[in-house]
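Recap for those who missed Tuesday's class. We walked through two folding examples back to back. For each one, the amino acid string is listed first and its predicted C-alpha cells come directly after. Nothing is annotated here on purpose, so try labeling regions yourself before you check the end of the notes.
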Amino acid sequence: MSEEIAISLKNISKCYKRYASPVDKLKEILLRGQNHAQEFWALRDINLEIPKGETVGIIGQNGSGKSTLLQIVAGTLTPTRGEVWVNGRVSALLELGSGFNPEFTGRQNVFFNGQILGLSKEQIEAKFDDIAAFAEIGDFIEHPVKTYSSGMVVRLAFAVIANTEPSILIVDEALAVGDTKFQARCMKRIREMKDQGVTILFVSHDSSSVKMLCKTAVLMNHGRVLEIGKPKEVANHYIALLSSSQPENYSIPPTEECKEEIKEIENDDDFVITNAQKKVLHRHGNNLAVIDSVQITDLDNKEITKIETGAIFQVKVCLEAKADLSDLVVGISLRNLMGLVIFGVNTQLMNVELPKLTTGKKLTVCFQIPCYLNKGVYTFTIGVHSEEGISYDWIDELIVIEVINNINSDGILFFNTTIDVGIQQCYAIAQEI
C-alpha cells in the first residue's frame, strides 16, 4: 500500500445477528449447524481510499452505516469481511464519552486515553495544562466523570484528541451535544489540524459544513456508498434523497440536568484572559493597547448570546492604552464556523477618528450592526492596531453569537425578499387546415 494513502477499505461489510429471543441464541450455540438468527447487514461492500491530509465528509440519514464505518476505521469494531488498512495514529470522537471510565477522575481519564493513543506518561504530562485549558471544566477535572454533564464529557474528550497530535482524526456527531461556544472552538481547532496536514473523517448532518470544510464527500444509504465526489454535488444529492423519503428526526438529545456549578462553567463568558486559557486563543500584538472586554448587546445594552435575523445588535469593545497613542484603529471581523470571513469593518474604513489616549486610559468603541445573517453560529474576531497596520492586540474568533430565524431558508445571508405573482391569460387560436 502506498505511503501516500492514510486509509484504505476494501470490500468492507459488517453483519449483526438478531434473535427473536435469548433461547434462539442458546439453541444456535448448543446445536451446531442450526441458524436461528436474522442477519442485519449494517455495511455492504464498502470500498474507500483516502489520501493523507485529505478531509472527507461522510453524510447520510440515520441508520445509513456512517458510525459503524467510523468505528471500523477507528479499530473499535471488526468487519465481518473485507480488509482495513490505516496508516497513522488515529484519534476518534465517536459516541459521547466513549473510552472514558465514569469512576475515574477527568485527570485519570486524560492519562488513560493518552496512553491508548500511544503517548508516554511524560508526553501527556507535558500536554496536560493545554488539555485542561481547552476543556475549561475547572476543578471538575479532579472529580469522577460520572458527575459531569454531557457537555463537559465532550469538552474533555475533544480536548484530549485536539492536543495529542493524531495523524488521522475521526469526528462523529458527538460535537452537536456541546454549546455554541464549544462548537466554535472545536471547529476552529479542526480547521487548524486540517491546515497541519491531518487526515480528517468528518460525519455531519450539516451539509453546509461538509461543503466548506471537506475536499471530498461520501454519501451513504442503507449500508452502502451511493456516491463519492465533490462536496457540493454530493450534498445536493443528499438533500434530494431526504426530500424523496421520510427522513428521521435529527433532534439533538437534551443534556442532563447539572448542578449549579456545572451550569456556571458551561455558560461562562467566552472572553478569557487568564494565562492558562490564553493558550486556547490565537492572540498577538505588541500590547501597546490591550482589549479588556468584548460584549454583544441589544439596543438596550443588555448582553445577549442570541440574535434574531433582522434585529440590530451591538459589539462593544473596551480597550486600555498601555502607552500614549494617537493613531488607534479598532476593527471587527465576522466568520462562520468554517472560518469564512463574511464581513469586516474598522473605524478607519468608516472614517471615525478615535481620540488620543494617554497611558492607562480606557476607551469603549461600539459597533451597531443590522443582522442580515441566516440562522447559524458565528464568531467575531477583534483587532486593535495603528493607522499603519501595526498590531496592538488581536484576538481571533473571540466572541460567539447564535442567529435564530424561524423562516426555513438556505445560505449564510438572509434578504427580506418579496414575491409578486402574476397570472397571464393565454388564448388558443384555432386554424383551419
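Example two. Treat it independently of the first, because the proteins are unrelated.
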Amino acid sequence: MNILITGGTGFIGRALVTRLRRDAHDVAVVTRNADDARALLGTDVGIVESHPGVPVPLDELGRADAVVNLAGEPLLGGRWTADRMEILRSSRIDLTRAIVDAMAKLSDRPQVFVSASAVGYYGTTGDRVLTEDAPAGDDFLARLCVDWETEALRAEELGVRVALPRTGLVLGRGGGALQTMLPIFRAGLGGPVGSGDQYLPWIHLDDHVEMIVRTIADSRYTGAFNATGPEPVTFRSFASALGHVLDRPTILPVPSLVVRAVFGRAASTVLEGQRAMPMRATALGFRHRFATVEEALRDLLENPGIDIAPIEGQIPNSPYLSERSPSFLLETRSELARPLDEVFAFFSRAENLGLLTPPAMRFRITDAPRRVEKGSEIAYRLRVGPVPIRWRTRIDEWEKGVRFVDSQIEGPYRSWWHEHSFRAVGESTLMTDRVYYAPPLGPLGRMANSVFVAGQLREVFGYRAGVMRLRFGDEATDD
C-alpha cells in the first residue's frame, strides 16, 4: 500500500514508519523540515514537504491508499494558557480539517483515514471502566478530542473508512512520558503523583503501533477504539512496577499542589486518569504482546541481551586494536525475521544510522560516501546529554553479506572497533555486534565506564534493538 503519514517524525510516528516498512509498504511522511526527517527516518521512506497554507500536498494525498494522521503539539509542552490551548486545538483540529477538505477535492480517495485521538475524550471518570461506548467528558481535553474526531469523521461522507485510535500513555524507548520519568525514578526519588489512585491507560509502543497497522489493513476497524493495554493500572501501581524493574524505592509521592503549580491547568492530564479498556480491538482478535505493565517495563528497561565486560583473553587480529588497546567488550545478538540480504542492505547504508540512534542524541551525518566499502569514512555529530560530539569512523573491513567493521578515527573514545556480523538461519538472520572499546583518561575512564559509559551504551543498543525488532520482526512477531 501507499501510506501517507503526518506526525511521522514524532515518538509514535517514527515507530509506525519503521514497522510499516517491515511489510514493504511505500511510506511517505509529511514534514516541515525535510533534512531532519531524513536524518531520523533513513533512506527508504519518502519525504513530503508541507508549506504554509498547504499542509498536505494534494498530489501526494491522491496517491495514498491510507492516510495516518498523528500530528499535534505535545499536551505537556507548556502551561495551558489561552494561547497554548489554541495551539493544541489548531495543531490537531485545523490539520485534520485540512486533510478531509483536500480529500473532498479528489476523485480517487484513500481507502482509510486513521486519525489519532486520546482517552482524554472521556474526561474525569475515576475508577469507572470505560469502553468505547462511554460518553464524552466536558473538560478542555475532552472537548478537544470530540472536535478532533468530528473533523476526521467527515471523511466518511466521502466514502473513506475512518478509524480513531484513542491513545493512552504510550511506553517506549527514546521518547514519551517514560523517558521523562526515568531520571527521577533511577535516582530513587520517584513515587505516585497526586493521590496515586488515578488510572493510567498505558500501552507498549510496539503494541500501539501494531494496532494501527492492523487498523490500516482490517476494514472491521471503524470509528473509535481504545488503543490501550489490556490491564490499566493506578499510578501507584505503575510507580511500584517501575521501581521494581529499576530496583529503586518509590516512596516519595508528588503532591497534587506541586503538579498544579508546575503545569497549571495541564496538570489534569497527570492527576486525572481514565480506566479505558480496549474492548473493540480485543473483540476483533487483537492480542497484546505485553499484557501487563511490568512486562512492558522489563522489555523496555532491562536489555538482557546486551553484555558488557572487561576484556579477558585474545582480541581480534587488527592493526587498529594493536595500536589502540581496548579495555571492554560489548556484545549483543539479535535474530531478525528477514532474509540476510535484506538485513545486510539496511545496515550497510550509513543514512540509516540516525533511525537506529535515540533521537535525544540528535545524530546527524555530516559527510558520507555514496557507496560504503573498505576504506570509506563517515563523519557525524551527536550529543551525549548536553555535550556535543563529533565522530568520524572508517570502514576497516568489508565482506558483503558476511561482516563489516568500523573503527573510530576521531571521537570521544580512546579505542572503538565495532564488528557487525551476519549469518543466515533459514529465512531469518542472526546479527551479532561486538564492540571493543576503551574510554579516554585511563583509570578514570574505567571508573567512568562503570558509573556512566556502560549504562549509556546499554540504552543506545537497547534502543537500536527495539528499532530492529520493529523493522525486521523477531520470533514472537513472526508467530
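Answers for example two:
The chain has 15 helices and 22 strands.
The first helix runs from residue 11 to 22.
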